[in-house]
Write a structure and sequence with these properties.
Elements (H helix, E strand, L loop, with lengths): L8 H46 L26 E4 L4 E11 L6 E8 L4
Length: about 120
């Protein structure tokens, strides 16, 4: 009777395949997490930049000076794009001004768009 304690080539191949599938799955999870983090960072930066787009306009909010392009009379106070050099993303803004029905108020909507890598 011979007692075989050696590892066969078939066992090594099967364990290598199982290891490769496990490592491939872990790499996929990490790459997806990295992409999700980058997207979330861009969304947070967009929100902060929305504040940066609107902050210069606080001192110039007069309805008699509003135009279709900007809230105030000073067009240089209305940035239309900002560039984030840390992520190499350019954010573009677009203002939409519409009247509120039944009042003399106006509603301002600010859209911020960007392209992710």
């Amino acid at each position: 009777m011979m007692n075989k304690k050696a590892v066969t080539l078939l066992e090594i191949l099967i364990s290598s395949i199982i290891l490769a599938i496990t490592i491939g799955g872990l790499v996929s999870v990490f790459l997806t997490g990295k992409q999700f983090t980058a997207h979330t960072r861009s969304r947070m930066a967009g929100g902060e930049l929305g504040k940066a787009f609107l902050d210069p306009l606080q001192m110039d909010v007069r309805a008699d000076k509003w135009s279709e392009k900007c809230l105030g009379g000073n067009s240089s106070a209305c940035p239309t794009q900002l560039h984030d050099s840390s992520q190499d993303i350019t954010y573009h803004s677009n203002y939409t001004i519409s009247p509120v029905a039944g009042t003399d108020l106006r509603r301002v909507k600010l859209d911020i768009n960007w392209n992710e890598k």
